[in-house]
Amino acid sequence: MRTFSRFAAFIVLLIPLGGCSKSNLQPVSVPNYDPDSISAALLQQYDQNRDGNIDRSEAEKCPALKSAFAAIDTDQDQKLNKAELVTRITAYRDSGSLVSATVQVYVKGQPAADHLVVITPESAFSSSFKPAEGKTDANGFTPLRVTGYEALGVPAGLYSITVTNSSGKLLGKVPLGQEIFESGRSSGGAIELQF
Q1: Which residues pair with 53 in a beta bridge?
Q2: Whole-structure pTM value
Q3: How far is 166 from 168, CA to CA, in rounded Å?
Q4: Is the pLDDT reported for residue 182 higher than 50?
Q5: Distance (Å, rounded) from C-alpha 147 to C-alpha 170?
Q6: In the chain, what are the domains?
Q7: Residue 120 and residue 102: Cα distance in Å, rounded?
Q8: Residues 167, 9, 2, CA angle at the centre, nearest 5°?
Q9: Coil, strand or helix: which one is 120?
Q10: What is the DSSP string of 140-188?
């Protein structure tokens, strides 16, 4: 579990989900995008010293990238180069289906009902991806659904996470981010957020 100043978050993803029938929603459509362009945009945004890599200190500015750093850094040199980014983003695209993502929210150790969880694609993905959201039940759980899609789940990628309570107050003082991708993850878990 990754510990942040006032909360902890970890993610384990479930299997891809099929659609459900709701007439006002769009059928599932996994975005097709260019991994090279997205990798270049990530480097442009986060490679502050312009050495062609994103090091761990630069990844601090992107919590989702930070969460996936070890998985993306295949040569283990503590830097993400363009080839490593392209490889990972190509794997996201080529997964070809939505990834089930369920969130459980706790506030002061108790499941938090009626909290809105929104995940927003990191800016490099934003032209291809839409945000996803869900409202927690009495046990603090919510599956995530891309706005307007008929199926639960989200495209694999890098996301920022916000949680607001029923009064509209944003929880947490530290930006949250997470890679959502089923590769290399155990099944049966959820994104757990503790405030």
Answers
A1: 81
A2: 0.82
A3: 5
A4: yes
A5: 20
A6: 35-94 (1.10.238)
A7: 15
A8: 145
A9: strand
A10: SEEE-EETTBSBSBB-SEEEEEEEE-TT-PBP-SS-EEEEE--TT--SS
